């Protein structure tokens, strides 16, 4: 059985849509995702306007994907080749189980 994981990508809200367009170019690796509005805090944040600077947080999007573990490096390589931005922070965590509730009860 192949292991699955969650690939999380934290990206500026200015470029989230463009990044997702690049992800749709590889449907053999990615079948869908969830995109969540988020706020970025920390010393690496680049404030885009006065409101963000006053609030102390930047507008971000968190793109969450469930992918095969062996596909993570391919997805990241695709992003690096096709999407020219240094404003993406990612991390990977194991996914023990996933599925739709309509698939039935778990044992």
From TrEMBL:
It comes from the Bacteria. It holds the Pfam family DUF3240. Keywords: Plasmid. InterPro entries: DUF3240, N-reg_PII-like_a/b, N-reg_PII/ATP_PRibTrfase_C. This is DUF3240 domain-containing protein. It comes from Acinetobacter towneri.
């Amino acid at each position: 059985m192949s292991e699955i994981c969650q690939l999380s990508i934290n990206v500026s809200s200015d470029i989230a849509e463009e990044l997702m367009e690049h992800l749709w170019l590889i449907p053999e690796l990615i079948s869908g995702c969830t995109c969540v509005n988020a706020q970025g805090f920390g010393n690496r944040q680049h404030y885009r306007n006065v409101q963000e600077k006053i609030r102390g947080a930047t507008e971000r999007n968190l793109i969450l994907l469930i992918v095969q573990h062996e596909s993570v490096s391919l997805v990241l390589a695709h992003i690096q080749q096709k999407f020219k931005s240094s404003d993406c922070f990612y991390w990977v965590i194991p996914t023990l189980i996933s599925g739709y509730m309509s698939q039935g009860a778990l044992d």
